[in-house]
Amino acid sequence: MTAHNQTARSLSRLAAAAIVVATGLTVAACSSGGAMTPLHPGLSARMDQPNAVLDRTQAVAIVNAYRTTQGVGPLSNDIGLDGTAQALVNQYASTGTPPKTPSGLVGMKLSAGYSTFAETFSGWRNNPADAAGLTPANATKAGIATAYNGTSGYGVYWVLVLDQ
């Protein structure tokens, strides 16, 4: 069996497992009066308050889960890129003007107005252009940050940067 066939078979098994889990959660929700299993607190924590702390590890993990479904390798958390993302999102939150992707980076995703990373990620995933920006094959590292500005119309700002 070729490496390509092994990868395809592994992805097929992963997709089948995900369908089984999703079906199980749906059935459980229906039988328990509609209550769904909550997301990891790091993904559903609200960032629309001063001093909120983003669980960067869980945020990159959900991006990696999506990348796996698209046949792309995982990203590693990078503290230096977290710093870059934080500087960019602070600028974005204070000016309201989306920053430009710094030269040398593989890519950048921006968002504003979503209170949780789960909402932000869903927005990116559900927009074809944004979804493609999550999956460049040459990206191996990620940095992510959020900033809150209670006086702006959006409140919460997000920046995800990708690099090699």
TrEMBL record:
Residues 62-161 form the SCP domain. This is CAP domain-containing protein. InterPro entries: CAP_dom, CAP_sf. Transmembrane segments: none annotated. The keyword Signal applies. Keywords: Signal. It comes from Devosia rhodophyticola. It comes from the Bacteria. Residues 1-28 form the signal peptide.
